[in-house]
Amino acid sequence: MLTRECRRSHFPSLEGITYLNTAAEGIPPLVVGEALARYFQDHQLGMDGRARHFAEWEAARALAGEFFGLTGAEVGICSCTSEAFNLAALALRLQPGDEVVINDLDFPAGTTPWLQPSCPATVKLWPARDGALRVEDLIPLLGPRTRLVTTSLVSFYNGFLIPLPAVVEAVRRYSPALLALDVTQALGRIPLHLEGVDLVVSSTHKWILACHGGGLVGVPAARAAEWTVPAGGWYHLEDPFGPERFARAVSRPGAAGFTVGMPNFPAVYAIRAALEYLRGVGVAAIEQAARPLVRACLDGLRRLPVEVITPAEEDALAGILAFRHPEAERLQAHLRAANVHLMAQAGRLRVSLHGYNTSDDVEAFLRHLHQALGQVGPG
């Protein structure tokens, strides 16, 4: 990563392609495959392999804690962000009259638990303006009944990076709400500063370059009691096999309560390997290398006949850029034929740049997009 030599040796599958779709699927370095193979070797030991599994578990939690600014004890691992948010919804025990604030740049995992008919809370929408979430639009939605504000740090939709310190300040000043933050599109790509956040969640198959089947959950110790998950299971319970196991169930508070059953150990091995890899490279170094590529790509898009929907402000940029075109799917097909990989969905195209991308990737993408626009026409 960051050099052509490392790209060739660590990411051989990227040779000959322009891969700009990490926001959907990250390309894991070979060390992640080696970790998965090590899991299989350990699992062949049967129960004797459990000690090795749990050593990986503790190491993965400690590493995730480093990235979140938390301790390993303040990190749990579940199966995905959707599970994390559904368990969070159980923990809140919302009542009629409670209010939850969501926004229209967020991924469904963080918004839909509160939109189910079974949720008694009132949902308020924080709408984006010109592709950005403005804090001045959030403040009128906050009040004494606000129980939760939930948002992504970086929008999957258009890559907008929220002004987190200002959001934290507004939530604290104008409400008693908890703040839940999905960092899926940020973790491993930009440095994180999560002071004031009450719940942190992330998937593991995108920017951290691990695999599917993992959901990282961070709960500061001071907020543990407020995120106690009343779910069935065993791994998250205080004494699941004790003498009172058929009389009552007591959940462990905080992050520990978000792993309700046997951990997905293959994903845990992959998470540890991926986070160790990223720590070795340095997220700050990744951001320093990739930011000029993002800016060059954005500048190039603005010179083409497409509707860019990512705000241009420098402090609102992370790793994702998005634009619209009436023939989005046809454009994607033309680009894919040129070995340029990106996401197209409902008229929106999305490119994402990580530390393994290069200026050649940006130039190839813009060149082939220009050619594809000439073939497709204005639509």
Walk me through what this model shows.
The protein is an alpha/beta fold. It has two domains: about 5-30 and about 285-375, Aspartate Aminotransferase, domain 1, CATH 3.90.1150.10; about 30-280, Type I PLP-dependent aspartate aminotransferase-like (Major domain) (Aspartate Aminotransferase, domain 2), CATH 3.40.640.10. It has helices at about 5-10, 30-45, 50-70, 80-90, 110, 135-140, 165-175, 265-280, 285-300, 330-335, 360-375; strands at about 20, 75-80, 100-105, 120-125, 145-150, 180, 200-205, 215-220, 305-310, 320-325, 340, 345, 350. The strands form three sheets. It has a seven-stranded mixed β-sheet, sandwiched between helices. A four-stranded antiparallel β-sheet has the order 9-10-13-12, covered by helices on one side. A two-stranded parallel sheet has the order 1-11. Helix 3 packs across helix 8 and helix 9 (about 285-300) packs parallel to helix 11 (about 360-375). The longest helix is centred in the C-terminal third of the chain and has 20 residues, at about 285-300. The two termini are about 40 Å apart.
Which structural class best describes the helix and strand composition?
alpha/beta
Q: What Rg is obtained from the alpha carbons, in whole angstroms?
A: 21 Å
- Mind telling me the CATH superfamily name of the largest domain? Type I PLP-dependent aspartate aminotransferase-like (Major domain)
Poorly predicted spans:
none
Count of the domains: 2
CATH architecture classification name of the largest domain: 3-Layer(aba) Sandwich
Q: What fold name stands as the CATH topology of the largest domain?
A: Aspartate Aminotransferase, domain 2
According to DSSP, the number of beta strands is 13
From the N-terminal CA to the C-terminal CA, the straight-line distance is 38 Å
**If you average the pLDDT, what whole number results?**
96
- Total helical segments: 11
Main sheet record: 7 strands, mixed
General shape: globular
Give, in spatial order, the strands making up the sheet with the most strands: 2-8-7-6-5-3-4
Proportion of residues in helical segments: 25-40%
Name of the CATH first level of the largest domain: Alpha Beta
Written as H for each helix and E for each strand, in order along the chain, the element string is HEHHEHEHEHEHEEEHHEEHEEEH
